[in-house]
Write a structure and sequence with these properties.
187 residues; alpha/beta; TIM Barrel; six-stranded mixed beta sheet; two-stranded antiparallel ribbon; 5 helices; binds iron/sulfur cluster
């Protein structure tokens, strides 16, 4: 039976891990080692615990009133095949997919040359929050992100354009030298 390494059981009723009411799959394992990471216990590639994907699917099917699933961690792209199976299952059950990764979209496209499963997973994802958490870029003014360098990408449009396309309503930049809460500039 196929398994996924998780850091925690499926978290339901989240409103901070993407738009709408979401359930979060906390994958275990991350190689990015970002300074200031909030979830260092999720880094160990052999940490957490192994869960049958079928059990996770049962938990997902039992969700009520949820808009979608968020793949987080850890880095879901450490477990591409398992996340692809879960993401495909979610889409078949009308749940949208947000995904956090420490890789940039551009890095994933390069990695895809060696592992075509990456593009298959991207094709199932609606919104990708990409890039490492950078402590010096930390901001509380970026919805759903920890640091200003991270982007909220429209994956379908990004794949079509073959370059990172930020979801229109998230095309905002904080003015430098201003308190992050003071002003947002639309670009
Ligand atoms: S990518 Fe995310 S989980 Fe991994 S070290 Fe960076 S902040 Fe932590």
């Amino acid at each position: 039976m196929a398994k996924i390494r998780l850091a925690a059981p499926l978290q339901t009723d989240s409103i901070v891990d993407g738009e709408g009411l979401r359930a979060v799959v906390w994958t275990q394992g991350c190689i990015h080692n970002c300074e200031g990471c909030h979830n260092p216990e999720t880094h160990d590639l052999k940490g957490g615990y192994l869960e049958d994907i079928d059990n996770l699917k049962k938990d997902i099917l039992a969700l009520e009133h949820h808009d979608g699933i968020t793949l987080s961690g850890g880095d879901p792209f450490v477990q591409i095949d398992a996340c692809l199976e879960i993401a495909t299952f979610c889409k078949e059950n009308n749940l949208n997919i947000w995904c956090y990764t420490g890789y940039t979209f551009e890095q994933l496209m390069i990695m895809n040359k060696h592992n075509k499963q990456i593009i298959k997973l991207l094709e199932q994802i609606d919104v990708l929050i990409d890039g490492k958490f950078i402590l010096a870029e930390k901001s509380y003014a970026c919805p759903f992100r920890g640091s200003k360098n991270q982007r909220v990408l429209d994956v379908k449009e990004s794949l079509k354009a073959n370059k990172a396309v930020i979801l229109k309503k998230y095309r905002i930049q904080e003015k430098v030298n201003l308190n992050a809460y003071d002003e947002l500039v639309f670009i």
